């Protein structure tokens, strides 16, 4: 018997209560492993990844076993204080599944459980991946050599929830689905001093303010407007009190675009502006630009054409074609190594965006999500 809607809801609510940050997903790991172990079959093998201890890989040997189909879910949460008021809200202060990875894990477990009841035709590898929000867990596991031998998927599929779409709807597109991103971490260091004697200090706060304004020109003046891009500075800390000139200022932000060439051009402009501001204001700039595994999520032509054709023709699946989004995903790195497709799953909470402290996916999305992906993967294995 496949998992029922209420069993899927219970799993999602259990996971929702224990959100853990990137590379610290120990309780989540143990919960997932408990479920997977309960569904042991003679054709299942479970593998740990010592370099990334919260990762789990599960191999199901197929009856034909000529090819290997990969399915990936992320498992980490965000440093967000939940304000949903749900009876099963986060029990970990300051941490929340505000990006719906609890939904992603539930869907992956639902699909896995199905194929422990019905042996797949082809081999399958399920990847429970830590650190999607930060620290690029997919790349870390790949770099650790975890996808070699029987663990190497010929193709990889994955899903992300989308509160703006109706619960249970699947959406994707040919080509690029999500942007590539680069984290910006910048510290200006000057000389602090008394507010009354600015001539004897080098004000890092003024340099940071100038940087925030100048960096807006990257998108408005350097990026092709038809292709688009984003530079957001989301965090700025400088100084301690009103009558002391700030000796240092720290900024964090993100660069986003759909093409890797645009991302690299934008990285260069951000670096030039940071260096220019530092020279102008007599401070030093310590800049880190980290792309890690957040490459653009490029859906592969063959797998994606097949997925769209299958889901469009499947009367039980509500499928829609969708425009690309500036969200990032380190599944983009895995799709550079293995052909495959990422899809959105609608979770019907249009009042709230991903990363909102009130984001509350509709659990009516769980069963259709599991069933649509299970039907597609079954079809894919018969190809
Ligand atoms: C789907 C989603 O929300 N993903 C995150 C990925 C973050 C990448 C990295 N930490 C960065 O900020 O560049 C997103 O914020 O889009």
Automatic annotation (TrEMBL):
Entry EC no(s): 3.5.1.47
Superkingdom, natural source: Bacteria
Catalytic activity entry: N-acetyl-(2S,6S)-2,6-diaminopimelate + H2O = (2S,6S)-2,6-diaminopimelate + acetate
Active site as annotated: 74, 133 (proton acceptor)
Record key words, sorted: Amino-acid biosynthesis, Diaminopimelate biosynthesis, Hydrolase, Lysine biosynthesis
All residue ranges annotated as the Peptidase M20 dimerisation domain in the record: 180-278
Pathway, per record: Amino-acid biosynthesis; L-lysine biosynthesis via DAP pathway; LL-2,6-diaminopimelate from (S)-tetrahydrodipicolinate (acetylase route): step 3/3
InterPro entries assigned: AcetylDAP_deacetylase, Amidohydrolase, Bact_exopeptidase_dim_dom, Peptidase_M20, Peptidase_M20_dimer
Matching Gene3D superfamilies: 3.30.70.360, Zn peptidases (3.40.630.10)
Similarity field: Belongs to the peptidase M20A family. N-acetyldiaminopimelate deacetylase subfamily.
Function: Catalyzes the conversion of N-acetyl-diaminopimelate to diaminopimelate and acetate.
Alphabetized HAMAP family for the sequence: DapEL
PANTHER family, per the entry: N-ACETYLDIAMINOPIMELATE DEACETYLASE, PEPTIDASE M20 FAMILY MEMBER
Protein name: N-acetyldiaminopimelate deacetylase
Organism the protein comes from: Lacticaseibacillus pabuli
